[in-house]
Amino acid sequence: MNLRKLFYSMFVGILILGFTFNLFNGVTLPEDMFYLVAAYGGLSLALMLHSNMLTFLTVRKVFITKLMSMFIILGLFLIFFDMVMPGFVVTGFEIKSFSSGFLTIEQYTVDKYATIALISVTAAAIASALDYLKEE
């Protein structure tokens, strides 16, 4: 992978992660610029590691294998960063109550690990879809 592809992949990964962090507001990012860059850089690197892992395991690189490997790696990175990085905190997020005539949803809070799973699945699905579209 040359340097141009690396920066392109990291930039796309940072955009995907920023979108998913705004979508699920259960992640508190660090205030310090060094830790913020390290968090985004490390998590976008986690989105890029799937290719090397699948090549090492000699698995065909199709949409579902990319999705699953990105989901697992990103989830592990999120748990690791939550444990060791100062200022990077993953908490549960609240889903507000909703009522539309016959359907009523009460307000509830999603668990911390469910938040990590939702963020990982969403980011992996978007990254896999973009990667699949780039190949075609």
Task: Write structural notes for this entry.
The structure is a single chain. This protein has 136 residues and is mostly helical. It has one domain (3-135). Helix content is 67%, strand content 10%. The chain contains 4 helices and 6 strands, in the order αβααβββββα. The chain has helices at residues 3-23, 33-56, 63-84, 112-135; strands spanning 27-28, 89-90, 94-95, 98-100, 103-105, 108-109. The strands form 3 sheets. The protein has a two-stranded antiparallel sheet. Strand 4 (98-100) and strand 5 form a beta hairpin. The radius of gyration is 16 Å and the shape is globular. The two termini are 19 Å apart. The relative contact order is 0.17. The model has no long low-confidence stretch (mean pLDDT 88). Keywords: Membrane, Transmembrane, Transmembrane helix. The chain crosses the membrane at residues 7-27, 33-59, 71-93, 113-133.
Structural class: mainly alpha
Number of helices: 4
**Shape type:** globular
As a whole number of angstroms, the C-alpha radius of gyration is: 16 Å
The secondary-structure element order is HEHHEEEEEH
Keywords: Membrane, Transmembrane, Transmembrane helix
Transmembrane segments: 7-27, 33-59, 71-93, 113-133
Structural topology:
Layout: H1 3-23, E1 27-28, H2 33-56, H3 63-84, E2 89-90, E3 94-95, E4 98-100, E5 103-105, E6 108-109, H4 112-135
Antiparallel strand pairs: 1-2, 3-6, 4-5
Helix pairs in contact: 1-2, 1-4, 2-3, 3-4
